[in-house]
UniProtKB/TrEMBL annotation:
CDD domains for this protein: YciF (cd07909)
Species of origin: Flavobacterium rhamnosiphilum
Protein name per UniProt: Ferritin-like domain-containing protein
Gene3D superfamilies: 1.20.1260.10
The organism's taxonomic lineage, starting at the top: Bacteria, Pseudomonadati, Bacteroidota, Flavobacteriia, Flavobacteriales
Record-linked InterPro entries: DUF892_YciF-like, Ferritin-like, Ferritin-like_SF, YciF
Coiled coil (UniProt feature): none
Length: 187
């Protein structure tokens, strides 16, 4: 990558010398950002599995872990193909989502309510990944990186399928069970 995104601007709004100057730079920063996020998820998903009680949710999280490891490998292939150094830049957005996830787990008792919270948190993760992979795919297409665009499209499609599966788990059982548990507690 040629430059980093600057968090600082001078008083006239001009970006300092370490600013990103072009689409290629944004693309490289985005790759490093999602690389960090995916690597951190390989450590976070087992914690989510440990705290989930629904066998269907645990199975979904196990599948996601396998898929996430594949995403890390795929990103490493993308770095190789593009000649970009495979380094991770901390993703503040994902860091915030995962901090919120950990807080939710600490604040809920194991059971269907926690499961509903884990699904909600996981879908926030999925939506961030969908947005990021979608953007990177569009950047790759624009930059003429067709092989990279194809690899990114694979991850994007997998994230969308996982999000839909999580919605199914929530709607088919977890949310109504959590609602009933809440009704019993409040009577």
């Amino acid at each position: 990558m040629r430059t980093q995104i600057s968090k600082n601007e001078n008083s006239k709004g001009a970006v300092q010398a370490n600013a990103t100057h072009g689409l290629r730079d944004l693309f490289e920063v985005g790759l490093k950002d999602i690389y960090w996020a995916e690597k951190v998820l390989t450590k976070t998903l087992p914690k989510m599995m440990k705290n989930a009680s629904s066998p269907e949710l645990v199975n979904s999280l196990k599948n996601q872990l396998s898929e996430t490891k594949e995403h890390v490998s795929r990103l490493e292939k993308i770095f190789e193909v593009t000649g970009v150094e495979a380094t991770a830049i901390k993703c503040e957005a994902m860091g915030g989502i995962l901090k919120e996830t950990n807080s939710l787990i600490r604040q809920t008792d194991i059971g269907v309510v926690r499961d509903a919270g884990i699904i909600a948190a996981d879908q926030k993760v999925k939506h961030y990944e969908i947005a990021t992979y979608g953007t990177l795919h569009a950047f790759a297409k624009t930059l003429g990186e067709d092989k990279v665009a194809s690899l990114l499209a694979m991850s994007l499609d997998e994230e969308k399928r996982t999000d839909a599966a999580l919605t199914g788990i929530a709607l088919n059982a977890i949310n109504s069970q959590a609602h009933r548990a809440d009704a019993i507690t409040n009577t």
